Hints:
By secondary structure, the chain is α+β, with helices and mostly antiparallel strands. It is built from seven helices and seven strands.
Amino acid sequence: HDITARKQSEAAAARVQYLSHYDPLTDLPNRALLEERFQYAMGIARRNGEPLTLAWLDLDNFKDINDAIGYAAGDLLLREVAHRLRGVVHDEDTLSRQSGDDFVLLLQGADQHEGIRVVVALQNALAVPLHLAGQELVLTASIGLALYPNDGDTLDTLLRAAEAAMYHAKNQGRNGYSFFAPELQARSARIMALGHALKLALGRGELRLVYQPQVAMADGRLVG
Length: 224
């Protein structure tokens, strides 16, 4: 019996199943598998009263690097980043690629101190020079951390908190980390609301130009 067609069908089904749970570029878990792993880790955390840390890692200046070395080399860089990050986390933890140069780590049983230890290890792993496309690159990352149960008890809540903390770390000068605080989320919400309002303001005639002349007191000249 020729079972070639059946084997090809099984291989195609296995490939579809794989792509539904893993990122095709880095072979890391995607958002769907992260959700499954989170539910499992959350069950353990609730039963045993254990902490849980979610970290959001974003490479610094990745767009500039991509523009300099090209998108094909940029994909190779992301694979290398995934390989280095994977070497830091424990087997029970989950390293996931969200999109672009954003990675999320689910650290099971990790409190604030363990979160800091992992973050430092991640930054040290990235700091080793990388030779790619004829250039030597040294990567840095901004990392935000959110803790269960203080910062949330669902994946979406913790992701938003960790992302807000990551942007705070980026605004503080990059190549650092920050833990979530409620005021960070309020600031992010304010920035989003302001951005949305500005998009509508011109059409609604809500913008007006105001200037203050600077006059030299000695002779009354307009100097600015």
